[in-house]
Fold Peptide chain release factor 1-like mitochondrial.
Amino acid sequence: MRIHRLGINVARALKHFESVYAISHTNSLRQRLSLHSATSKSRSYSTELQPQLSPDLIKIMEQRLSAIEHRSACFENIINRPDVSPMEFSTANKELHKLRGSMDLINELRTKQKEIDGLRSLMAECQDDKEMFDMASEDLDEAIQEEKRLQDLLLQSLLPKDDADERGSILEVRAGTGGEEASLFAMDIYKMYEKYSQKKGWKFEVVDITESDLKGYKEASASISGVGVYGKLKFERGIHRVQRVPVTEKSGRVHTSAVSVAILPQADEVDVQLRNEHLRIDTYRSGGSGGQHANTTNSAVRITHLPTGMTVAIQDERSQHRNKAKALEVLCAKLYEMERLRIQTSRSKLRSDQIGSGDRSERIRTYNFPQGRVTDHRVGITHHALHEVMEGENLDVFIDALLLQQEMDAIASFSSVQ
């Protein structure tokens, strides 16, 4: 297996990152990206090759830790006051609960730092006792490594997090530019995510599929349930471009087509509350494949959210009840993501941010069948095992690199806000 870094995006990200991390860690990042595919096993991007944090970054982090310690002490004082009201006690106790994980790590770090100070003092006092000096030096090396580990964990805990990362996802695949070939590739991409989900142990459930004349997919959606699904798949949204000889091509020419992928975090009832008066629910007879049963019963369901005009239509199941449940699930996910984007970016257009126009030029990844390679244009990585990727394998080559880039960007942002 070979990985080639095409250079532009990754080099730019690494150059930007050198001002935040020490040069030695930047070198290890380069090595980490270039050797990422030496094994097919999935790896956690944040636990390998512990970073050597720069002094400036440690200083900024210490300021944040001191603020957390002060905040925790204030809440401790509140709940220990004899005249504290039930409301104040409840509020302070909730805030302390939120800080507990960080405070446990901070206390562990402070204990380790005291140990390091003690060992250094001991080494200064026993320089004439070689055996004692060597023992203290060995213990000091171990303590410093543990301090770095704790600092890295604390840095990770302080970085901005997306609460939706641990949720399941709604996957939507649409054929873009390229006619029937785009529909056939949309089917291939959809099945790629199905196989990837199975390998991850996630539950993949078909929501709706609209077939083309050649049995490709004009549109297809699925519900993917499991822990951390959205955190992994959110990088897959965008335009996926394919270069290959279509089955309809007589002269053997390579065509370029495009497929758009949207990834929405699943919404809980507490996230989106749908009022009956805000919904218009229509039922109608299913079209397309499905036999006589699908064509003679009003099993298909179309739900319109009147305040936004958003419409979801599902006809995959023969049961009207099941189609309605799936339509509500997709509608909730879309409304939840719309609100998330409105808060984060002050924009209200959900799909245009995720899948663009479907034009071939707006691509995040290219699948070149004649050369057997897949290139992710955001991180500049090319994987020369296209068949494995289409079988749901080695997608983590790209996803883990994108997670790493996200971590790098978050740390850069962290250091710029003091």
Notes: Confidence is low (pLDDT under 50) at residues 1-51, 289-295, 346-352, 355-360.
